[in-house]
Structure formats: C-alpha cells, structure tokens
Amino acid sequence: MTAPTGLRALIAAPHPDEAPLPPAAHLDAGVRLLRGVSYADVPGARPLELDLWLPGHDPGRPPVPLVLFVHGGAWRRGRREDMGYRMRSWEPGPFARIAAAGLAVASVDYRLSGEALFPAPLDDLRAALRWLALRAPELGTDIDRTTVWGESAGGHLAALLALSEGASRLRGAVAWYAPSDLSGQAEAADTPEALLLGAAPGEVPRLARQASPVAQVRPGAPPFLLVHGEDDSMVDCDHSRALAARLGEAGVPVDLWTVPGADHVWHGLPEPQVEDLFGRTLHWIRQATR
Questions:
Q1: Boundaries of each BD-FAE-like domain copy (predicted)?
Q2: Is residue 13 situated within a structural domain?
Q3: Which residues of 49-65 are buried (b: 16+ CB within 10 A; e: fewer)?
Q4: Do strands 104-108 and 48-54 pair parallel, antiparallel, or not at all (unpaired)?
Q5: What is the sign, positive or negative, of the torsion defined by CA atoms of 53, 55, 58, 60?
Q6: Can you tell me the distance from the alpha carbon of 233 to that of 68, in angstroms, rounded to the nearest whole number?
Q7: I want to staple 198 with a disulfide (CB 3.0 to 4.6 A). Which of 47, 63, 117, 266 is the partner?
Q8: pLDDT tens digits, residue range 169-226?
Q9: Is residue 50 one of the residues assigned to a domain?
Q10: 274: CATH
C-alpha cells in the first residue's frame, strides 16, 4: 500500500510527546484518573500506554511525588491496572489509595516476552520515565521525587531500572517478591526466564547477567525496599536476601522485609497483613520522597 507522504503525516496519531492528555475521570477523595495515555510509539509494536492516578486538583499545591508502578506476570502476561490478585477486590483500589495519600501513580505497559525480548521491557520503562519527565509540568508531578515499585516480574524490572546508570532521578525502588538472579535458573527453553531472554539462561550467560539485578548493583543507586514471603514457592526468598546483601556491600541503603507464612503474591496471608504491608510500603515511599 502506498500513499502520499503528506497524507501519512495527516492521518498519523499525534506523537506521545505532544498528544493532548485525555480528560480525567474524577473518583472519590478527589482522585483523578487519566486512563490509556500513550507514552511511546515503538515501530512495529502496539502503542505503549500508562494510566495516571493523580491527587485532587489544587492550583496552590507544589508538584507531588510520583510512583512508577510495574506490573507482574512472569514477563509474559499481566495488566498495568493490576497490583496482584490480593488487591483486586479493594475498594478503593491500591492506586486510588496512593493518589488519595498525595502521590501520583503512573502504572505502565511494557512489551511482554511474546512481543519482544530483553532488554525491550527495560527500554520501555526508561521511555516511560523520559515521557513523565517531559510532561511533568502538565501533570503537576515532581519527577525528581520518583519511586519505582514493582511486583514479581515487575519488581525485577523495577530493580533493574533503579540500577541503571541513567536512573538518577529515582529516589527509591520497591520490589515485592521479585527474582534477582536469572543466571541460575532452569535450563529449559520454555521457562519464563528463557522466554524473556530468547534462550535458556545457560545458553546466553552474558545476557542473563545483564538481566540479573544482583549482578548490576552499583554504588550510588537509590535506596531499595525488598519485601518477600519466606514461603514463596515461585520465587525463592533467597533472591531478595542475595540482592539485599549485594546492595549493602555496595553501600546502597536497603531495607529487607521477609514475611513469615507468605507465599508468592502474599498468598496465605490474612487480609489485615496484606493491608499492613501495603501501608508500610507506602509509608517507606513517602519517607524516601520527602
């Protein structure tokens, strides 16, 4: 199919850097939700979008801290509006609660392993951070008070983002029950790690190391909060223990909370404990972004 160059330019959607923001839906407690905001156009891929949860509009308020949230799903599935099955029935939901507490949340899409191989999802998070910095004046957010928070595979990507040399804007990183070392994983070609890397980790050791937060620790990284169930049957708690130890050796401030009786995604925990972990994590973020 061919078309005049001028027509292609005319019918193309506005670039995410310049596209107008969608109208906000107004929720309880004054929270505003901007859903499906495009932050990047990747050639040959679907548009990448994020949802923005913002505190109520207050013209006199200084820019608010920002949480960049990264969903889980074994790098293969998952949705940006989902913080894990234990919080799906919350009303109001977890992102609305964070916004009601005075922080903005950007929950992001990234390319899954069936769409692109590593480091594509990490590149997408970098692109989201760049877009959020560009549009911060419109959003009323303080990009220099940003924390990245992810759960499971999203926690792995959040940790890698915080350990990137170009992540100097980040004030903290939170990883819930996240893998930290992909190099020691099973050698089968159909594991989540192999599907992310394009081959079993043992076949691509350099790439597996690049994708392992425990191998990417550097002095000067932002503070970390690692939270992991001691009975996690999907991602062993030793992943967070090893990352905490490596961060400590590098002089990076780190808090490690291990949770007795908790399996992956907080399965097995009573509801009050899940609420408490969420609240304590939010308090940690607020302290990191003061």
A1: 50-247
A2: no
A3: bbbbbbbeeeeeeeebb
A4: antiparallel
A5: negative
A6: 27
A7: 117
A8: 899 999 999 999 998 766 788 999 999 999 999 999 999 999 999 999 999 999 999 9
A9: yes
A10: 3.40.50.1820
